[in-house]
Amino acid sequence: MKEELLEVSDLKTHFPIQKGILKRNTGFVKAVDGVSFKLAKGETLGIVGESGCGKSTTGRSILRLINPTSGSVKYKGKEVTSLSKGELLKLRKEMQIVFQDPYASLNPRITIASILEEALSTHSIGKDKKERREIVLQLLEKVGLNRQLANRYPHEFSGGQRQRIGIARAIAVNPTLIIADEPVSALDVSIQAQILNLFQDLQEQMGLTYIFIAHDLSVVKHISDKIGVMYLGRMVEYASKDDLFSNPSHPYTQALMSAVPVPNPLMKKERISLKGDVPNPAAPPSGCTFHTRCNACMEVCKTIKPKDIVISPGHVVSCHLYDSAYN
Ligand SMILES: Nc1ncnc2c1ncn2[C@@H]1O[C@H](COP(=O)(O)OP(=O)(O)OP(=O)(O)O)[C@@H](O)[C@H]1O
């Protein structure tokens, strides 16, 4: 049996909405509103959903780059939400993040060697500058960059190369878990495939565990073991990749799935279009958060929040269509 690494239970992150000069609190944006999942060591969880559904906030709350409002995040059995600053710094060595836009997160004034050396010295890796430089050169090779590029600045690299540097920085401290927040969204499709392959190679070599955040299912399809489909701060469907693709059950997953291109041009797929925009997480609908956009929901959705229904082992759907109480 695989060793369990991460257990997230009923995670909520609500941001206060402050208005006026006095910054009066007028409500909350429920960016993450009850997310739960388990992840074993070496596995990849793909989190997908439209812009604003709470994917990044989920990732950042797990790492405590944002303090969650409530819920539990257990990493190797230890509660992350109650760690002190010192304990958190130690944990950061094990949990790293790769951002969508590495350029924005790479200091433009220092060379990439210095950027990587900084990551190493923060966590006291390498006994002196010489040893750290050697580790940096090995890291560059590990992510497919020539070691002769070490003294160049971030602007001298292409988008794909910059993402390789972002990945090098994340793996520099030899982490166990990497949260990759839309790491290929800003790249051309051909480059996307190369970066996805790099993530997979590194996972094999280093036994990494990933939470891989993306807008669409086609990006996470190949890399994920499990997939969570997020909508308005909740996971509306959570399953192994195989179960999700063979039996997409929530109407939202079905709509996302219909947008995934099929390689066979003879196979025609009907695109399911969703009605309207994603509702505002600051004022979500009172019943099922999805009913305003769904073609299949019943009247009951307008008033009652759906429960999480286990439709087969490990396959959970949050929709009235699967709740025997309403069918
Ligand atoms: N610091 C913050 N203060 C207030 N609201 C926030 C904050 N961060 C995020 N939000 C809001 O929380 C909601 C979820 O945002 P989040 O960035 O997690 O979504 P996302 O699914 O990652 O979207 P994207 O793909 O566009 O990054 C959005 O409505 C966003 O405006």
TrEMBL record:
Similarity-based family: Belongs to the ABC transporter superfamily.
Coiled coil, from the record: none
Record lineage: Bacteria, Bacillati, Bacillota, Bacilli, Bacillales
Keywords, ordered alphabetically: ATP-binding, Nucleotide-binding, Transport
Protein name (database record): ABC transporter ATP-binding protein
ABC transporter domain location: 6-257
Organism: Chryseomicrobium palamuruense
InterPro entries, per database record: AAA+_ATPase, ABC_transp_ATP-bind, ABC_transporter-like_ATP-bd, ABC_transporter-like_CS, Oligopep_ABC_C, P-loop_NTPase
GO MF annotations, alphabetized: ATP binding
